[in-house]
Amino acid sequence: MIPIRDNIPTDHFPVVTAVIIAINVLVFLFLQGPSLSGDQVRTKPVVEYGAIPYRVTHPDKECDLVRVQDATGAISEQVVCEGTRDYRAAEQQGALVNIDEAPWFVTLLSSMFMHGGWLHIAFNMLFLWIFGNNIEDSMGRARFAVFYLLGGLAAVLAQVAVDTNSTVPTVGASGAIAAVLGGYMLLYPRARILTVVFLFFFFTFIEIPGLVMLGIWLLLQFLPAVGQLATPDVAGGGGVAYFAHIGGFLFGLAAIHLFARRRSARYDQPRYPVY
Q: Which residues contact 161 (CB under 8 A, 6 or more apart)?
């Protein structure tokens, strides 16, 4: 399911939402340097500014890159961190690629403005624009900025708590946006979301209540998260930080009424326009 728009008009232009989207796009294009021919981004910036759980739980340790060659001769880069066996082995072989990492506490914020590829940022920004403008409208600009950042922090810390020794960088606005979705689900459960639904080789447009759509979204995060807990590679399976999504969503549910000051008056009217 891909949302297209909702039917709740905003009273003010969502300045903060637009600025957050612009920052994400600029960071992706000019810091991460994505490939135009694929969905790849440069590894070095991701390691420098992504939130690595091992660094958060071991704040006195640093991480570097090591180049690894597989059986086919292809070379890839992997993250290794001080105090681990892989790091010591790479150090002895002289295979370490030293990088200039941001302080671990800075990466908790910087990581939520980075993405893993074109599809990752495209879908995140679509969700942020559709749902973020109404949440910003309900709070005001300053409150929304704080709510968004706190939601992103809650998401990153949830991912860290699940896999404290992971050396896989966590990047993406998904956790902060999940907080927005959680708030939207409580504030506008009866909103109608125009959605593209794919059925095998066909697709159709239908309107789905916000409560139903976001409930399905949460279920699609929860089921894989349970599957990740059942595997040895706890939080990194599939490359998706599902627990960050869940952590952000739960924050949004818990905090929305602490931040929101109003709800659109047109939401409670029998009929209101689609914008």
A: 243
Q: Buried b vs exposed e over 60-82: b needs ≥16 C-beta within 10 Å?
A: eeebbbbeeeeeeeeeeeebbbe
Helix (H) or strand (E) holding 196: strand 192-199
Residues 6+ apart with CB under 8 A from 86: 66, 78, 80
Q: CA separation (Å) from 51 to 103, 137, 158, 164, 225?
A: 10, 30, 12, 12, 19
Q: DSSP 3-state assignment of 185?
A: helix
Instruction: Tell me the C-alpha distance between 22 and 16, whole Å.
Output: 10
Q: Using H for helix, E for strand and C for coil, what is the string for 136-168?
A: HHHHCHHHHHHHHHHHHHHHHHHHHHHCCCCCC
> Which residues belong to CATH 1.20.1540.10 in the chain?
2-62+102-268
Dist. CA 193–CA 179, nearest whole Å: 18
Give yes or no for a contact between 246 and 158, defined as CB atoms under 8 angstroms apart.
yes
- Indicate the pTM of the whole model: 0.91
Q: How far, in Å, CA of 76 to CA of 64, rounded? A: 14
- Work out the widest C-alpha separation in the chain, in whole angstroms: 71
The rounded distance, in Å, linking the Cα atoms of 207 and 191 is 9
Residue pLDDT, tens place only, 171-225: 999 999 999 999 999 999 999 999 998 888 888 999 999 999 999 999 999 988 8
Phi-psi region of 273 (alpha: psi -120 to 50; beta: other; left: phi over 0): beta
Sheet containing 75-81: order of strands:
75-81, 63-69, 96-97
Which superfamily does CATH assign the domain made up of 2-62+102-268 to? Rhomboid-like (1.20.1540.10)
What would the pLDDT profile of 2-28 be if each residue is shown by its tens digit?
A: 999 999 999 899 999 999 999 999 999
